[in-house]
Amino acid sequence: NEDHFKKVVSHAKEYGYVFASSEIYDGLSAVYDYAQNGVELKNNIRNYWWRSMVHMHQNIVGIDAAILMHPTTWKASGHVDAFTDPLIDNKDSKKRYRADVLIEDYAEKLEQKAQKEIKKAKKRFGDAFDETQFVSTHPRVVRYREEQKEILGRMAKSLAAEDLKDVKTLIEELGIACPETGSKNWTEVRQFNLMFGTKLGASAEHATDLYLRPETAQGIFVNFLNVQKTGRMKIPFGIAQTGKAFRNEIVARQFIFRMREFEQMEMQFFVRPGEELKWYEYWKETRLKWHLSLGMGEENYRFHDHEKLAHYANAAADIEFNFPFGFKELEGIHSRTDFDLKAHEEYSGKKLQFFDPELNKNYVPYVVETSIGLDRMFLAVLSNALEEEELEDGKTRTVLKIPAILAPTKAAILPLVKKDGLPEIAEKIIEDLQWDYNVVYDEKDAVGRRYRRQDAAGTPFCITIDHQTKEDNTVTIRDRDSMEQERIDISEISEKLKKSVSF
Ligand code: ATP
């Protein structure tokens, strides 16, 4: 809910995860900086993805292509002509919106109404409640769902047919008002290209127009044959990449969910024509398993299969996550056919084909892609982790239950007091651990307050050195989630951490 979302945003700043970009100049809309803890979490998510996609698959390799590419790339890919969002302005408030998002928000409200009815009935009927039966028979719920489907279906159809007039008509028929002012005085709907342009070259007349890449995928397509040949790759094989992408988003809101500069983690999997749907199903399952392996709750994920397909796709689904503002796209899995490679063949005049020794023929491979936003994944982790927990003594504690393998800092090393040789022992422990783990030292304030600070920062373990340590070389190790403490030998710390935080 909204309240939780606000807490996530302010917590992200207070605990050094995310800052607004150039904040001293009042920030730049939809651009953010990752702070001292944020950069660690982001690196860990990226590494976890890279390991499981590249290192754990013998037929997937990685590349790191440049952000700037030859401008014809974007002509071939269709982005110059078709990478657009439908834009609408409100004449009174002068505010600008994405027409499709206005309509989707309207549909989402209908869904919320349906959910309310379901919740009410659940309460009323208790254990006897049969949800499937209820949603298919309750008149209001059926109506809300049908209306939703009709609206979204009509919008998809209009957009696919480039019938922007009908998109406006739909907005008017539904009586959608400007969310800020309530005005219903709308302009026409028009297409807006999301690519950021820039220039290469020193003198104005000889400069070449370039684009900042709006997706990392094209860097993979244009390198397809280089990688296949030099890596002696056989189909099926994949190429993975992580890196920045840029989109001049019309509506910038929801914190790091929709940014103008963001990072993608993409993998293009090249397959035999005709086998793409089998691999599409394989990657849908495999990617969902990756998400579930983090233990953020099975109920927080769902697939959304696309009815309206992009010009290049023959099947597409999103993995949606339960963000504080509802289920929204976190990752896309797309069967992109041979659209991209064929287009690059055509525009470059170079063959981009694979000789399949088993079939004894050349072909342009088909592509199944998995594409996840690193920043969206970051937001999923952070919003899922933040909890205000009621304790037995009636107090509450703020805790960030980030999966230990992703946590920015793995352990805080705390001398109970700042004297009696305890800080020196702490330093020695840090010298050993820092080779393998990101750990921090903290000696300020009472140890209870230090625990709370580490809980809120998301550190899975606190290791405390006390006077007994001097006698028997043992320390206490405290678990962030259970708050349980255990006494272990100093020599056992590293093994103990390894079990929980390594991947
Ligand atoms: P949306 O419908 O939310 O605009 P999309 O369908 O355009 O997203 P894709 O082009 O499929 O997104 O990009 C793949 C992934 O990149 C998305 O699933 C999302 O996680 C991420 N992504 C896309 N746009 C942004 C953005 N502006 N900010 C942050 N992440 C983004």
Protein model, in words:
The chain is α+β, with helices and mostly antiparallel strands and 503 residues long. It has 3 domains: 39-71 and 194-387, Bira Bifunctional Protein, Domain 2 (BirA Bifunctional Protein, domain 2, 2-Layer Sandwich), CATH 3.30.930; 84-192, no CATH class; 409-501, 3-Layer(aba) Sandwich (Rossmann fold), CATH 3.40.50.800. It contains 17 helices and 23 strands. The strands form 7 sheets. It has a 7-stranded mixed β-sheet with strand order 3-9-10-16-13-12-11. The protein has a 5-stranded mixed β-sheet with strand order 20-19-21-22-23, sandwiched between helices. It has a 3-stranded antiparallel β-sheet with strand order 5-4-6. Strand 17 and strand 18 (396-400) form a beta hairpin. The two termini are 32 Å apart. The site of adenosine-5'-triphosphate has 16 residues, from strand 10, strand 13, strand 16 and helix 13.
Keywords, please?
globular, 39% helix, alpha+beta, BirA Bifunctional Protein, domain 2, binds adenosine-5'-triphosphate, 3 domains, 25% strand, 503 residues, single chain, Rossmann fold, 23 strands, five-stranded mixed sheet, seven-stranded mixed sheet, 17 helices
Question: Ends: how far apart?
Answer: 32 Å
Overall geometric form: globular
Ranges where pLDDT stays below 50 over 5 or more residues in a row are none
Strands in their spatial order, largest beta sheet:
3-9-10-16-13-12-11
Mean pLDDT level: 95
> In the residues, how many domains can be counted?
3
CATH C-level name of the largest domain: Alpha Beta
User: What is the CATH architecture annotation of the largest domain?
Assistant: 2-Layer Sandwich
Over all CA atoms, what is the radius of gyration?
A: 26 Å
Category from helices, strands and their pairing? alpha+beta
Biggest sheet, in brief?
7 strands, mixed
Q: Output the CATH topology of the largest domain.
A: BirA Bifunctional Protein, domain 2
Number of strands: 23
Q: Oligomeric state of the chains?
A: single chain
Q: What ligands does this structure carry?
A: adenosine-5'-triphosphate
